[in-house]
UniProtKB/TrEMBL annotation, chain A:
PROSITE patterns tied to this protein: ABC_TM1
Species annotation: Porcincola intestinalis
Protein name in UniProt: Carbohydrate ABC transporter permease
InterPro entries listed in its UniProt record: MetI-like, MetI-like_sf
Family membership: Belongs to the binding-protein-dependent transport system permease family.
Domain ABC transmembrane type-1: 79-272
Signal sequence coordinates: none
Automatic annotation (TrEMBL), chain B:
Cellular compartments annotated: Cell membrane
UniProt-listed GO biological process terms: transmembrane transport
Topology in membrane: Multi-pass membrane protein
Top-level taxon of origin: Bacteria
Organism taxonomic ancestry: Bacteria, Bacillati, Bacillota, Clostridia, Lachnospirales
Alphabetized Pfam families for the sequence: BPD_transp_1
Entry GO terms, CC: plasma membrane
Keywords: Cell membrane, Membrane, Transmembrane, Transmembrane helix, Transport
UniProt domain ABC transmembrane type-1: residue ranges: 71-284
Primary subcellular site in the record, as a coarse category: membrane
Protein name per Swiss-Prot or TrEMBL: Sugar ABC transporter permease
Positions of transmembrane segments: 67-96, 108-129, 211-229, 263-283
Sequence similarity: Belongs to the binding-protein-dependent transport system permease family.
UniProtKB/TrEMBL annotation, chain C:
UniProt keyword annotation of Ribosomal protein present: no
A Pfam family reported for this protein in Swiss-Prot or TrEMBL: SBP_bac_1
PANTHER family: ARABINOSE-BINDING PROTEIN-RELATED, DIACETYLCHITOBIOSE BINDING PROTEIN DASA
Keywords: Signal
Signal peptide interval: 1-28
Claim: Signal is one of the keywords in the record: yes
UniProt protein name: Extracellular solute-binding protein
Length: 287, 295, 417
């Protein structure tokens, strides 16, 4: 924003203004065009889906695909499961990650703690898909396969490394002096946590929550492989009915399903846009 | 009384970090151990085979044309994609940092591609690059009406298409994270530079770049790792085709492990991938780590 | 303010913990509920609009209470999921619906229960198409492992509007076929269209090999070479397009509907064409497969999905009851009525399907005039299919020569056998 002041002269200002709007339009176009195209696919009846050239304003828009999904894919149950699993994951996961991040940073000079931190970072390097099969066997052996606790454990586990990394960096930004002053005033650990650390970390917590919310909602592999009965929204994408030759996956329904998942995210981001951006901008994500 | 309290204080760090450590250990130690063990066995479930074979899987891997081609593409994918993540990501971040009316709107919408489920994005991309009905060629044809090209049937263009979709989906997220780094640069620096008569370009190369370089380098770790293990895009967009030209190594491993049930072989590839990721992270941390905790 | 947010947060956190703990027993109960069912079915049909009606018919017909789990319909995902379940001895599902790719993969693995003594007894087995049962769902010990749930053909489809335009009445021989190719192709239109995605194209490779009288398992056979060179020639002469290399059926069908293809092979009864109002004797319809061989013989592939019994199942009695029902008239009728699945038993198809259904006539002709076969598959089916698809694509793109293609194909046959 300061760069703007460097240039001088009115003509230069207008020029820059034009460039700005061109850049703006270009970015918006590249980002939104495919999304819009997926949207119009979802409101076009299957018989008219493929047209060349593309009709960017569908002639006969219909909500057929959405109606189909609502009545035949068990959306309500999937939404309920998704809310339970992601809700518990975010609450419990964020809580233990805050504690962990705080512990890892404040006690980083202790060898054991530091080693534990390195362990967390190292596990980040494990490609989840490639260890999926033994993990599947393991979950069955310990009786957690196809259960809510099992799925929640896996979801939390998947968000731990990145969350810890971000939050730990943030704890580093909180001056120790604040805590020391509170400690002298007789504040115990939990009090310091509650009145000093948590309020200061609010933006960072908001940021990891939104990032984790999105990545959990899109997590397709975990619910697909580690459960049979318990199904969540993302899995519905691969459960759409086949066309009669048993091989064709219906694009009209797939695009509609994509939007059903995208909708809550867009709403969430639109409503909490300010908080999220403040969180990110406050340096919450220094990775 | 005091004693017991200090004892509790000694335990405190462990109370804090143990929940996450135990949770991670619970979900990783067994699978990793098992994967390492399996990598030394010739396990082919469909052929009913399960015998110790030493390093055979590891040796075979480097003679298997399918694996070699996926290593080749993975390297290209990671380098090209990360190159554009960094260059375009910094540019996009600066665009998002411009102060004007559309700024908030722009910052919000750029996250949409990232939030799109990748299976849907992959299927959409398969259609989008279709010559007859796809979005891409349709847009091009509005400018060049006679344009005909099928992106997904040639090695080069299919690979370019996969990388383009990856960038469309992930670049905005990267840019938002770079943006948060940009926010830390104090305006006074630019003021001072201006007083000294620096041009806009000099401001960029002398102030902006050096100050965000470390942040960007740190961001590169998770983003590169995600690329190395990425398979869902290819899975739904090209299934590795044409031929095996766009089969990323993670996709190859998934296919061997889940479809072909060559468990031992898949495990060996997984171990190699893990080692590569480890090496990469160590190198990256060496480079960035020397100046760590400066800010 | 700070105090309040702090309190709120800790409140939320403790509530979350409580919820997390409380949720455990509550949820355990709900999954346990599957104990009330007699049997669990892993089905790809659950999202079909008429699935519920089908299920209630089947439940009242068998007297079983059936618990249903939705299986992925996307082919890769489904294959991986079912493979993982069976190979790890997962007993949480009893009956699974699997396609030919999976039945040939699993039939000799011991993961599926043999049904000779219980369901597919000699008299029942004889009612099904023998060639299909022997090739696709009978294991090395002679045990039949599945109950076919329908009959489908890789039918030959033509666009009548194009045929009328170029004035060709029927495509019966290789000469007719080539004349048609020449007349139709040009200006963005192609005589022949295909789905040449690497895991789909083997259908067509094998179809042409059979049409030329070759043998898919023997690539030293000169007819195989002839068939492949024929396809290559179609590409070279512009009679078919390389654009179809990434196409699956869902990409091919819109092109067929738009009149870009003169003829093609496809499974099913043409719902996509019907949706676009392009199905009918004067538009797009099935036709007899042309004969390319000197002796005038015709070949066609049949496919099916089979209900199979998980060997690890703990509810085998109920499962057998279910499977027995599926081999009979009521089971076949329910599939036809609700899912439009053409009955797998020819004798029942005669009874169930009304003569007004155009598919009936065509399918009867296919069964009468063609050599009906299951598709060529080996134990490591998916690996084999995708390996063949890969080299086929390379050959069509002129990256390898015909001789390379043949020797590699032969190598794969030997490797995966």
């Amino acid at each position: 924003m300061k760069i703007k002041r460097i240039s001088n002269g009115t003509s230069g200002k207008i020029g820059i203004c034009i460039i700005r709007w061109v850049v703006f339009a270009l970015i918006a176009f590249v980002v939104l065009m495919p999304v819009y195209w997926i949207f119009i696919s979802s409101i076009t009846p299957p018989g008219e889906l493929f047209k060349s050239p593309i009709e960017y304003l569908p002639k006969h828009p219909s909500l057929e695909s959405y109606q189909f999904l609502v009545s035949h894919v068990g959306l309500l149950e999937k939404i309920r499961n998704t809310i339970i699993i992601i809700g518990v994951t975010l609450i419990v996961g964020t809580f233990i990650c805050i504690l962990g991040a705080y512990g890892f940073y404040r006690f980083r000079d202790r060898k054991g703690v530091n080693l534990a931190f390195l362990f967390i970072v190292a596990t980040m390097l494990i490609p989840e898909v490639v260890t999926a099969r033994p993990l599947y066997e393991f979950m069955r052996k310990v009786g957690l396969f196809d259960t809510y606790p099992g799925l929640i454990i896996l979801y939390i586990s998947s968000i731990v490394p990145f969350t810890i990394l971000i939050l730990r960096g943030f704890v580093g930004g909180i001056p120790v002096v604040l805590e020391e002053a509170a400690a002298i005033d007789g504040a115990g650990f939990w009090q310091r946590m509650r009145y000093i650390i948590l309020p200061l970390m609010k933006p960072a917590i908001a940021t990891v929550c939104i990032i984790n919310f999105i990545s959990c909602l899109n997590n397709f592999f975990t619910p697909l492989y580690y459960s049979n009965h318990i199904q969540v929204l993302s899995v519905a994408i691969v459960q759409l009915p086949l066309r009669d030759n048993m091989y064709g996956v219906p694009w009209d329904l797939t695009s509609a399903m994509g939007w059903i998942i995208l909708m809550p995210i867009i709403l969430f981001v639109a409503i909490f846009e300010k908080q999220i951006m403040d969180g990110i901008m406050a340096g919450g994500v220094k990775a | 009384m005091y004693r017991s309290k200090s004892k509790a204080m000694a335990l405190l760090p462990w109370l804090l970090v143990l929940p996450v450590v135990i949770l991670r250990a619970f979900t990783t130690i067994y699978p990793v151990t098992k994967t390492i063990r399996d990598s030394f066995f010739d396990i082919r479930l469909l052929a009913g085979k399960n015998v110790f074979c030493g390093f055979e899987n590891y040796i075979r891997m480097f003679h298997d044309p399918k694996v070699l081609i996926s290593i080749q593409f993975t390297v290209i994918f990671v380098f090209v994609s990360m190159f554009f993540h960094i260059t375009l990501g910094v540019l996009l971040a600066m665009a998002l940092n411009m102060k004007f009316k559309g700024q908030r709107f722009l910052r919000t919408i750029v996250l949409i591609p990232w939030a799109m489920p990748s299976v849907v994005a992959g299927m959409a991309a398969k259609w989008a690059f279709n010559n007859d009905y796809g979005l891409i060629n349709d847009l091009i044809r509005r400018i060049v009406p006679s344009f005909q090209y099928n992106w997904l049937i040639y090695r080069g263009s299919a690979r370019a298409a996969v990388i383009a979709v990856d960038l469309w989906k992930d670049l905005p997220f990267f840019a938002i994270l770079v943006l948060s780094n940009l926010q830390f640069i104090s305006g006074d620096l630019y003021e001072a530079a201006k007083v000294d008569g620096a041009s806009a370009r000099q401001c960029f190369t002398k102030i902006t770049l050096p100050l965000i370089a470390k942040g960007v380098a740190t961001l590169c770790i998770p983003f590169t790792l995600w690329r190395l293990t990425s398979f869902d895009l290819v899975y739904s967009m090209t299934s590795g085709g044409p031929g095996e030209d766009t089969a990323l190594i993670a996709y190859r491993i998934t296919t061997e492990a889940f479809t072909n049930l060559n468990i031992g072989y898949a495990s060996a590839m997984a171990v190699v991938l893990f080692l590569i990721m480890m090496a990469f992270s160590l190198i990256n941390m060496r480079i960035t780590g020397s100046k760590k905790f400066e800010t | 303010m700070k105090r309040r947010t702090g309190r709120m947060l800790s409140l939320a956190l403790s509530a979350g913990m409580a919820l997390g703990c409380g949720a455990v027993p509550a949820m355990a109960e709900s999954t346990e509920a599957s104990g009330d069912y007699d049997l669990t079915l892993y089905s790809i049909q659950t999202t079909d609009p008429e699935f519920k009606d089908w299920l209630s018919d089947v439940e009242s017909g068998t007297g079983l209470k059936i618990n249903v789990i939705a299986a992925p319909t996307d082919s890769d995902t489904r294959q991986q999921k079912v493979t993982t379940m069976l190979s790890t001895g997962d007993s949480s599902v009893d009956i699974i619906e699997i396609n030919d790719e999976m039945s040939t993969t699993f039939k000799n693995s011991g993961w599926l229960e043999g049904l000779n003594d219980t369901v597919m007894t000699d008299d029942v087995r004889d009612k099904f198409a023998k060639g299909y049962v022997d090739q696709m769902i009978t294991n090395v010990d002679g045990q039949v492992i599945g109950v076919p749930s329908y009959t489908g053909y890789l039918a030959f489809w033509v666009n009548q509007q194009i045929m009328d335009e170029v004035g060709i009445k029927s495509i019966d021989t290789k000469d007719d076929f080539m004349k048609y190719m020449e007349a139709v192709s040009g200006n963005g239109r192609f005589g022949y269209g295909g789905s040449w995605e690497k895991t789909y194209v083997f259908n067509e490779i094998a179809q042409f090999v059979n049409m030329f009288g070759g043998d898919y398992y023997d690539w030293t056979n000169p007819h195989n070479k002839e068939a492949m060179e024929f396809l290559h020639e179609l590409v070279q002469k512009g009679y078919t397009s390389l654009d179809q290399l990434p196409d699956k059926y869902e990409q091919m069908n819109p092109k067929a509907i738009d009149g870009k293809y003169g003829c093609w092979f496809m499974w099913g009864t043409g719902t996509d064409y019907a949706n676009a109002d392009m199905l009918g004797d004067d538009k797009i319809h099935m036709a007899m497969v042309p004969s390319f061989a000197e002796d005038g013989s015709r070949s066609i592939f049949t496919d099916s999905w089979s209900y199979v019994l998980n060997a690890a199942s703990e509810h085998k009695d109920a499962a057998v009851k279910f499977l027995q029902y599926m081999t009979g008239k009521d089971g076949m009728e329910a599939s036809y009525k609700y899912f439009d699945r053409y009955p797998a038993r020819a004798d029942l198809a005669e009874e169930i399907v009304p003569d007004s259904n155009p598919v009936k006539k065509m399918y009867a002709e296919y069964a009468k005039e063609c050599n009906v076969q299951g598709r060529p598959m080996l134990p490591q089916t998916m690996e084999f299919i995708s390996a063949m698809g890969t080299i086929f694509q390379s050959y069509m793109r002129d990256e390898i020569s015909i001789d390379d293609f043949l020797s590699q194909a032969q190598g794969y046959v030997e490797e995966y056998q």
